[in-house]
Design goal:
Layout: H1 2-35, H2 41-44, E1 48-50, E2 56-59, H3 109-126, H4 135-138, E3 148-149, H5 151-165, H6 169-178, E4 180-181, E5 192-194, H7 195-206
Antiparallel strand pairs: 1-2, 3-5, 4-5
Helix pairs in contact: 5-6
Length: about 210
């Protein structure tokens, strides 16, 4: 019996050592080496964005709605509404430390009124009729800090950005195109414009402090 216990204990120890080497050392090391490959190291480290002096200023995966110094001369592309924003309509910077959605259904009367109010405010900001405001401009994302907006929402904002910054409309559209990603594999999802990357490109083009 003691011989059997000793044999089983020895087998268990050997399995423990082998699995520790495989799953505790070899596997994490392999994953780390893969993450160092060109094109993967940035996403593996959180897709961090850096300022010109090398200071980390955020992540391209997190969208924080920019606040213009002068709302009447707003040069920035705006993100979707956020349920964590201080603004009553969610049209301000969300709180990335409390990522959350509104969790309200389409038949919620409060949500319907909020969406209508958002549409009116955005239409006034862009100087267009409310019918031109796309759905993602008035509906919050599940995270509340999604940096992506639809090309339609970006296009709605192009004339204002061009007017305030002094850039030609075609130049602003070109910046939008540079920061638009298509469908995954050409089939999955929808094209999106990353505002977290687009606003600094606008700022660099006109010499403004970052977006």
């Amino acid at each position: 019996m003691l011989t059997s216990i000793a044999r089983q204990s020895g087998t268990a120890v050997r399995v423990l050592l082998v699995m520790t080497l495989l799953l505790g050392i070899a596997y994490p090391l392999g994953i780390w080496l893969v993450s160092r490959l060109p094109g993967l190291s940035g996403p593996a480290e959180g897709s961090i964005r850096y300022s010109a002096d090398g200071t980390a200023v955020g992540s391209s995966l997190i969208g924080i709605d920019p606040v213009a110094a002068d709302p009447a001369a707003d040069p920035w592309f705006h993100t979707r509404p956020s349920a964590t924003a201080d603004d009553a309509l969610g049209l301000g910077p969300g709180d990335p430390s409390t990522s959350a959605g509104a969790n309200l259904g389409g038949f919620d009367e409060g949500l319907v009124a909020t969406v209508a109010a958002r549409r009116e405010r955005i239409a006034a900001r862009e100087g267009v009729d409310v019918s031109r405001v796309p759905v993602d401009a008035v509906s919050s994302s599940a995270s509340g800090v999604d940096p992506g907006i639809s090309p339609a929402y970006a296009e709605l904002q192009v004339p204002r950005v061009a007017r305030v910054t002094g850039l030609p409309v075609d130049a602003v559209r070109a910046l939008v195109a540079e920061h638009t990603s298509g469908r995954v594999l050409g089939l999955l999802g929808e094209p999106t414009v990353n505002t977290t990357e687009l606003n600094p490109a606008v700022a660099a083009a006109v010499g403004l402090p970052g977006g």
